[in-house]
Amino acid sequence: MKAQFLSAAAVLALVAFGAQAAPAQPSHKITWDNRSLMIDGKRVAIWSGEFHPFRLPSPDLWRDALQKMKATGYNAVSVYFPWDFYSFAQGKYDFTGVRDIDRLFTIAEEEGMYVIARPGPYANAELTRGGFPGWLVNQKAKARTDDPAYLAAADEWLSQIDPIIARHQATKGGSVIAYQIENELLETTPSHSRYMQHLADKVRDDGITIPLFSNDIGRNGYWVPKSSKVEKTVPGPTDLYAWDSYPGGPCMADGTPGGLHAAPDFGWYSQGGAKGGSSASPNTPGFTSEFGGGWFDFWGSDGLYTCLANRIGSGYERVFYGTNIANGLIIHNVYMAVGGTSWGWLPGPIVFTSYDYGAGIDESLGLRDKAQTMKMIGGFIAATGESLAGMQKSDPVASSNPTIKLYHNANPDDGSHLIVAMHNPSSAVTKDKFSFSLKTRDGAYRIPAEGEIAVNGQDAKMLLADFGFLGQHLVYATSQLQTALKTADGDVALFYAPESEMGEMVLRYASAPKVTVLAGQAQSQFDAKTGDLRLNYTHSGIIRLRIEGGGRAPLTLLIATTEIGKTFWHDGTVLVRGGALLRKAKADGGVLSLEGDNTASETLEVWASKPFSKLTWNGDALTLTKTASGSVETSSLSAPEPVKLPDIWAGTWRFQAGSPEAARDFDDSAWRKADSKGGTSTVKPPLGQPTLTADEYGFYNGDVWYRGRYEGTDAARHVDLTYGAGGAGMMQIWLDGKFLGQHELPTGADRPQTYGTVRFDLPEWARKQGSHVISVMVRNNSHNWDLQADDAHKEGRGLISVALAADTGPRAAVPIAWKIKGLAAPVADTMRGPLNNGGLDGEIKGFHLPGDIDTSWKVAKPDSVPAAPGTYWLRSHFDLDLPNGDVALGLVFGDGKTLRSAQKYRVLIFVNGWNMGQYIAHVGPQRTFVLPQGVLNAHGANTIALAVTSDGDPKNKIEPVHLTVLRNARGGVGPISFSTPSK
Ligand code: GAL
Question: CATH for 648-657+840-969, among 3.40.605.10, 3.90.550.10, 1.10.287.1490, 2.60.120.260?
Answer without folding.
Answer: 2.60.120.260
